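To whoever is on call:

I kicked off a structure prediction for a single chain this morning and the downstream step that reads the tokens threw a length-mismatch warning. I double-checked the sequence; it's 386 residues and nothing unusual in it as far as I can see. Pasting both halves so you can look.
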Amino acid sequence: MYPNLYYAFRDLFGVELPFLKIFQTFGFFVAVAFLAAAYVLTIELRRRERLGWMAGYPETIEVGKPASTAELIWNGVLGFLLGFKVIGAALAWDTVSRNLQGFLLSGEGNWPAGIVLGALFAWLKYRDKKKKALPAPEKKTITVMPHQRVPDFTVMAAVAGLIGAKIFHNLENWGDFVQDPIGSLLSFSGLTFYGGLIVAAIVIIRYANKKHINTFHLIDSAAPALMLAYGVGRMGCQFAGDGDWGIPNPHPNPFSWLPDWAWAYNYPHNVINEGIPIPGCEGNYCRMLEVPVYPTPLYEIIACLLLFALLWSIRKRIRVPGVIFGIYLVLNGIERFFIEKIRVNTKYDIFGFHPTQAEIISFLMVIGGAVFIWYCRKAYAAKTTN
């Protein structure tokens, strides 16, 4: 396992770069997942724009204005945070590297570096705006195409998704949240995918409606990107060993063609330091699971990348708006429902049944996706016949 990129580069390339300890493996793959999804979404939105299915919307902007007070403040705050935390961490790396997350969430940092960098960022924004300033600011009308909104979608998905993932995780683990609410909210661990998906979807669809973007074509365009992002994100779970693994699997491997680590794995050097000590290992991440478990993130990586390939291959054949997204809901729901059978998760007690939160949501996704496909096909047929 590679808790952070330092260990990955050391094991894969034989080089030791201490500054890479700041980059957590799970966070790295989450960032890659967002970038990959944004790229795929942009490609599909452009295709639908060329077909005339999606159109741009005019917006009025004002050019030639000097920097506003709000712009200077926000740039100053950003510069201050970078100087206070990043430079502060670099100058005290030997101490900070032992507990980077604790340092980032603490009040510790380098005040002079924060003040200097904050002032520099504010001044750079002021100078940039002054160069572009006009004697009298002008208003211009421009047409913004849907694919040009992808950076906005990405930022909103990241922020709203993180909030939703934390909310749903704490609802699923209410006892832990009650014991330490502040710690649970500020912790970097404990994220629930479906919580992030639901909250991010609500925020983005509301934004798209305000910008007059066709919702059905937008969600169809996003479906393959979502499946890809999920698969790439699971790489972070697998390579970091973040505890999002399966139930114990003490059974012998029944498949001669399947490597033993793909059947049952003990996640050595996992990032959460779970399990028993590894003999002869010294350092921060020297534990492995006593009983090997099903490596469920690996199974989901394979399944979701294959499902992404399927969605990507059929997207040009299906012309009914909304159907691709409905298929995504059904496929993702089925995949997650069955993987939950061998995953470690909190279970509820509902009328004698003991489902997990993900099983409930995935079941609803399958039903909802099937109903949504039926509705979209019916609405499209009625529209074309009229």
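Update from on-call: the warning came from a stale cache, not from the record. Cleared it. Sanity check on the structure: Residues 357-385 form the longest helix (29 residues).
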